[in-house]
Amino acid sequence: MMRNTEERRLTVAELLPACEELLARGGRMSMAWGWFPGSTAREVCYLAAPGPRRPFILWRCGVTHETLPSLAARAPALSWHEREISDLCGIPFSGHPKGHPLILHAGAEPVMPPLNPAYPREVGMPFTRRRAHAPEVAGSDIQELPFGPVRADVMESAQFLFFYLGEHILHYLPRLFFKHRGMEKRFAGLSAELGVVLAERVSGVGSVAHALAYCQAVEAACRCEVPPRARWLRVLMAELERLYNHLHYFGHLADTTTLKVGQAEGKLLEERVKQIHAVTGSRFLRNLLVPGGLRCDIHPCAELAAELGRLQKDVNAYLKQLAHTGSYLDRLITTGVLDREMALAQGATGPVARASGLDEDVRRDHAYAAYADMDVRVPLRTAGDANARAEVRAEEIEVSFALMLRLLARLPAGEVRAACQPAASAEGLGWSESPRGALFYAVHFDEQGKLARVKIRSPSFSNWRVFQYTVRDSNMMDYAINEASFGLTIAGCDR
Amino acid sequence: MPVWTLFGLTRPVASTRWPGEGGDDGQAGVQGMPRYHADKCDNGCRECVAACLPGALTRKAGDEARLNMDYGRCIACQMCVEVCPTGAMETSRDWAFAVRDREDLKWQEALQTPPAQALKARVEGAFRNSLYIRHVDAGSCNGCESELQALNNPFYNLHRLGIFFTPSPRFADVLLVTGSGTYAMRDVLQATYEAMPEPKWVMAMGTCAVSGGIAAGGYSSGHGLEGVLPVDVWLPGCPPNPAAIIHALLMLLGRAPQRVRGGRCE
Predict the structure, then answer these.
(1) A151 and A11, same structural domain?
(2) Which of residues A94, A110, A127 is at a domain's end?
(3) Contacts of A374 by beta carbon, 8 Å cutoff, 6+ apart
(4) Cβ contact B142–A295 (<8 Å)
(5) H or E element: which one contains A172?
(6) Mean pLDDT across the stretch A50-56?
(7) Same structural domain, A355 and A324
(8) CB of B258 within 8 A of CB of B98?
(9) Are A408 and A383 found together in one domain?
C-alpha cells in the first residue's frame, strides 16, 4: 500500500480504459515505473494526477502477459517512461509510437534487465558504440549537425542532433543519457537514512529538492510526523535553493543574449546566495535533511534576515534592469513558444508549464513541509515563450523572498528530528516543487526494512521531452536562448 | 548598451584578492573532509564504516581496532562524525585537498618523508602564467559543474590568474574531468584526451572523478579516472568548492604548495 496515494489495482485489460477516463476528466499521467517485487514477479506502477488539489492515484498492474499495452499514444507524457521501463526492466510495450531504446545507448548489452535484483551488482554493461537511431531525412542542402556530447564552455554532457537548412531547423533530437549512472539502482539495499546521502547527489543543484522529496516519501511510508521546526526550516532551505538556481538562470540567459554585465551580475548574485548557504556547512545545503526531520538544528539568526533583505534590494534592481533592456527582450519574446495544449499533453512542469498557462505548483496544490501554513502565490503567464518563462521565474524569486522573510520572523522552536523506522514492505510517495518543477520519489522497502526500489521522476526528465517540440521549425540563432530559457539539468534527467 | 555600462561602473570591485594576501576565499563555514584521529578510535566499533556510503572508511585487514581512511572516496557527508561514539572523526575546514599522488589521499599512520617533489609531469615555465582548460563531464551530478561555472563569476574571476576555459581540446593544456566515467562517456573522454596536443595534463575533479564516489560501479557507472587516463592532479570533494579548485589549478602550475600528505591537511 503506497502511502500518500489512493491505490487501485488494474488488470492489463483495464489500463487503457482507465487512462482514457482519466484524460477525459481532465487528469494527467505523471509517471510510470517498473520493479521486481518478488524473485520473479514484475509490476508496473502508474501515477495519475486527476487534477489540481486532488490526491494522486496509483495504478498497479502485475505483469503477467508478455507485453503491456502502450498508453503513450493516448498520454504522450508517458512515452519516455514506457521506453525507460523497457530498457531497465525488460518489459516491452505493444503499440508504442517509438519503440527504440531511450536510456541505454545503441551498443549497450546488459546480460539481463539492469533493474532486475539478480543483476550482478558490480558488473558493468558490455558496450561497443553503434550508430544511434536517427530519423531518415532526404532532400537537397539539408545539413546534419550532431552537437556534443562535449560542448563549449563548462556544460553537462548531452548530444543534440540538428537537421537544418540555412538558419531554419527542420528537425531536432536531443540525445541524452550519456550520464546515466544507474542512480535508482544504487538505492537498493541501503537503509532509509543512508538513502538521503544518495538523493542529495542525484542532481547537485537540486540537492534540497531531491532530498526533501525522498525524505517525505520515506516519512509517508513510515507514518512519521516531522516536528514543526524542521518542517519550517525545510521550507527555508527549499526557497534558498530556488533563489540561487533562479539567479543562475538569469545570469545564463543574459549570457546567451550577449549581455555581459547582466551575466556577471546574475552570477555574482548567485554566488552571494551560495555563500549564505555556507553558514550551514555546505554551499549546496547538503548534509542537513534526513528522514524524520533534520540532522542538526540550524539557527538562522537575525543576520540572515538582514542579509536576505540586502540581497533582495540588489536582486530587484537587477531584474528591473533586465526587464527594461530592449535587446534582451527582443531575443526572448516569441522565442521557443510552447502552447498550453502541448505543455499539457507532453507533461511540462514547473516554471515552463506555468509560463504556458498551466496553473500548478505542488507547494500550493499538494502542500508539504510547512507550505500549508503559508500563502504560496503562483505566478502565471500564457504566452509560453522564453520571455514568459523568464517572467515566471522573476516573480518566483519575489515569492521566495517573501516566504523566507515571513518564515524567519516566526520560526517555531523545538525539536528538529523524530524517529523514522520503516516497517517491512512499507511504501510511500513523496514530492517537492524543485526550482525546475514537480519532483517525485516513489519508495518501496523490502521485508528487512531496507530500500528495495526507488523511482525518481525529475522535472528535467519531463521538460527535456517537451523542449524538443519548441525547437523544430525555429532557427539556429535562437537555440541557445531557447535552451537557456527552459533551465534544464541533465544529471537529473539522466540519473 | 550604455545603461548596463553605467550599471557595471557603479558597482564596487567584486573580485576577491585570494589567494593573494588578505584576500577572502569566500568559504567561511564550508565543511571539508572530516579529520581522523586514530588515537581516539579505540573501541573497535563499526559504526562509521556502516555509515560511510562511498566506502571511504574500511576496516584494516587483520587489525580489529584500526581503520583505513581513503579521502579519494570521501564525499564529506559528515555521517561518520555523527555516528562516532568516541569523537575520532571530527568536522574540519580541510577542503584544499588536491594532491599529485593518489596515495597521498590515503590516511597513513606515520608520515613518510615527503618525496623530493618528484612530479609526474612538471608544468613548464611557459604555461605557468597562462593555462587553458577543457572540461569534460563524464557523468557528474552537476554539483561540480555548478562550482566550475562559479569560477568565472566576478567574485573568483579566474581570468585574473591567467587561467581560462577553452571550447576546443585543440587549444587545451589541461583536461579537467568531473564525474565517474559512465559507460557512454568513456570513448568520448578518450577521444577528447587524444585530440589535445602535447604537452597536456589531466585533473580529476570531485570524488566521482577520483574514485567513482557515490556512483561508483554498477551496471552503467565508472570508478573514476584511475587506470583510464594519466592523472596529474587529484582533487576529491563533493563537490570541491571554487577555492579548492583554484588551489588545485595553481598547484598544478607550481604556484601553490600541496597541502595534503598521507591523508592529513597541513
Answers:
(1) no
(2) A94
(3) A235, A403, A406, A407
(4) no
(5) strand A168-175
(6) 89
(7) yes
(8) yes
(9) yes
Q: Do A236 and A168 lie in a common domain?
A: no
Q: Which residues of A387-401 are buried (b: 16+ CB within 10 A; e: fewer)?
A: bbbbbbbbbbbebbb
Determine contact, residues B221/B197, Cβ cutoff 8 Å. Answer: no
Is the minimum CB–CB distance between B154 and chain A shorter than 8 Å? Answer: yes
Residue A478: band (very low, low, confident or very high) from pLDDT cuts 50, 70, 90: very high
- Residue A138 banded pLDDT, cuts 50, 70, 90: confident
- Does residue A129 lie within any of the structural domains? no
Inter-chain residue contact B138 with A157, CB threshold 8 Å: yes
Task: Give Dmax over CA atoms of chain B in angstroms.
Answer: 71
Measured distance CA(A342)–CA(A470) in Å, rounded: 10
Give the C-alpha separation, A394 to A125, whole Å: 44
One domain, residues A215 and A87: no
A 66-105: CB under 8 A from B: 105
Domain of residue A46, CATH code: 3.30.460.80
The number of distinct structural domains making up chain A is 3
Q: Interface pTM (ipTM) of the complex?
A: 0.93
pLDDT at B157 over 50: yes
| Domain ranges, ordered by start, for chain B | 35-94, 125-265
- Per CB-CB distance under 8 Å, the chain A contacts of B147 are 283
The SS3 of residue A383 is: coil
Average pLDDT of chain A, as a whole number: 92
Name the B residues in 97-126 with CB < 8 Å from any A CB. Answer: none
C-alpha of B7 from chain center: 36
Q: Looking at the structure, do residues A209 and A291 belong to the same domain, yes or no?
A: yes
The CATH fold of domain B35-94? Alpha-Beta Plaits (3.30.70)
Residue of A nearest to B190 (CA): A150
Q: Could you list the residue range(s) of the whole structural domain that residue A169 is in?
A: 143-175
Per CATH, is B125-265 categorized as 3.40.50.12280? yes
What sign results for the dihedral spanned by CA atoms A439, A444, A449, A451?
negative
Last residue of a domain, one of A175, A194, A226: A175
For the stretch A401-459, pLDDT in tens is: 999 999 998 899 999 999 998 888 999 999 999 999 999 999 999 999 999 999 999 99
CB pairs under 8 A between A and B: 207
Q: Write out chain B residues lying below 8 Å of A197, CB-based.
A: 53, 75, 77, 79, 214
To the nearest whole percent, how much of chain A has pLDDT over 70?
Answer: 100
Tens-place pLDDT, residues B5-32: 898 888 889 999 999 888 899 998 899 9
Cα separation, A59 vs A62, whole angstroms: 10
Confidence of residue A95 (pLDDT cuts 50, 70, 90): confident
Does the beta carbon of A153 lie under 8 angstroms from any beta carbon of chain B?
yes
Does residue A415 share a domain with residue A314? yes
Query: Which residue in chain B is spatially nearest to A112 when comparing CA positions?
Result: B219
In chain A, positions 124-143, which contact chain B (CB-CB < 8 Å)? 124-125, 127, 129
Q: Is residue A84 part of a domain?
A: yes
- Taking only residues 216 to 245 of chain B, the set having a beta carbon closer than 8 angstroms to any beta carbon of chain A reads 217-222, 238-239, 241
State residue B127's pLDDT score. Answer: 75
- Let me know if residue A131 belongs to a domain: no
Question: In this structure, is residue A370 part of a structural domain?
Answer: yes
Q: Are residues A159 and A89 part of one domain? A: no
B62 touches chain A (CB under 8 A): no
Q: Given pLDDT bands bounded at 50, 70 and 90, which one contains residue B116?
A: very low
For residue A57, give the C-alpha cell: 492515484
Answer whether B53 sits within 8 Å of A155, measured CB to CB.
no
Is B120's pLDDT higher than 50?
no
CB A5 within 8 A of CB A31: no
Contact A150 B77 (CB under 8 A): no
